[in-house]
Amino acid sequence: MKMMRRIMSNIFFTTGLMMGFLSLRYMLDSNLSIERPGLQHAHGESNRSADNSSQTIRILCWIMTNPKNLESRTKHIKETWAKRCNIVLYMSSVKTDFPTVQLNVSEGRENLYWKTIRAFQYIYQHHLDEADWFLKADDDTFVVVENLRYILSKYDTEKPLYLGRRFSPFIRQGYMSGGAGYVLSKEALRRFIKGFDTGECTHFSNIEDMALGKCMETMKVEPADSRDVRGRQTFHSFPPDHYVIKKLPRPRPWFLLYDYYTPVEGPNCCSDFAVSFHYIQADQMYFLEYLTYYLRPFGYKYRFNPDKKMEYNATTMFT
Questions:
Q1: 85 burial class (0-12, 13-18, 19+ CB within 10 angstroms)?
Q2: Is the CB of residue 275 less than 8 Å from the CB of residue 234?
Q3: Labelling 263: which of 129, 175, 185, 275 has CA 20 to 30 A away?
Q4: Burial, 296: exposed, middle or buried (Cβ in 10 Å; 0-12, 13-18, 19+)?
Q5: CA 206 to CA 210: how far, in whole Å?
Q6: Is the peptide bond before 99 cis (omega within 30 degrees of 0)?
Q7: Nearest CA to 116 among 51, 207, 251, 22?
Q8: CA angle in degrees (0–180, nearest 5) for 255-258-261
Q9: Strand pairing report for 87-92 and 161-164
Q10: How far apart are CA 44 and CA 253, in angstroms?
């Protein structure tokens, strides 16, 4: 039964993803004739300059994992997107030759925030000056590191900022979804550590992402907007098929109700420069790797210039 569920899950994922891509292609083909001039990405001097700028961004990626997931999940991250980080750390409760960093924590969902606290403390002590930005990701999250570098190139790591998929409930300024991954600037990391040193931040909840968001708010770390110039999301808490396939009218699922910004379903949900997707199984890591880095229509050009400012719906779900 377990094998059958896994097979069916992969079939639904692949079918949904391909339907999403076909829907997106249909929409693009039908709108191509009315696309405003200049929105397709020209490979000119300004874009080469932006590319060069983003390449200087040093990202430390730390992966939340545990001993029993190393073979089934974590090694597939190691073989795919993690190679594009400047530094990669696999945080666990046990030291192994994988290699993993042993943190003084026990495993279990009730200890996820403790693991996060200990991981950032370890990074602050051993790697603070070796990176500009610090990404936390789960061991079933797929990340396009180049797109993350591009987004981060527009921000100053010496300012107290963090980025991700912004949720609204529970915290006044919102917080970043843990599954989609989130990124702390160097100054945000300093303030997070200071918060626990001074007692301004505490382990008041087992809900890792929300609890970290509360510490960010307490330490006056601002949630930066990670959406693209068209207002489309770049960090995603679920696989692509949960977003790119337009659904029939229905009550919105919780992960869309939680969104800080008014959500969009269908092909316009997600940025061309998406950064992350969560709940990605091992074989799906390689599938997304192929689609991201190898599959291209002949003569492909970017749909729009990511540096061109545009008007978009900036409304939020909550006030």
A1: buried
A2: yes
A3: 185
A4: exposed
A5: 9
A6: yes
A7: 207
A8: 110
A9: unpaired
A10: 42
Please state, in angstroms and rounded to a whole number, the distance separating the CA atoms of residues 259 and 254: 9
pLDDT recorded at residue 23: 47
SS3 state at 27: helix
Supply angle C-alpha 55, 59, 65, rounded to 5. Answer: 145
Query: Mean pLDDT of successive 10-residue segments in the chain (319 residues)?
Result: 54 53 43 33 42 78 97 97 98 96 93 96 98 98 98 97 95 95 98 97 95 97 95 95 87 86 89 96 96 90 74 52
pLDDT (0 to 100) of residue 304? 74
Query: What CA–CA distance (Å, rounded) separates 94 from 104?
Result: 9
Which alpha helices (DSSP H) does the chain contain, by range?
2-31, 45-55, 75-79, 112-127, 145-152, 186-198, 208-218, 241-244, 254-257, 282-293
How far apart, in whole angstroms, are the C-alpha atoms of residue 101 and residue 93?
8
pLDDT number for residue 252: 82
Q: Is the pTM of this model over 0.85?
A: no
User: Encoding tokens for residue 66?
Assistant: 């545990």
Coil/strand/helix, residue 165: coil
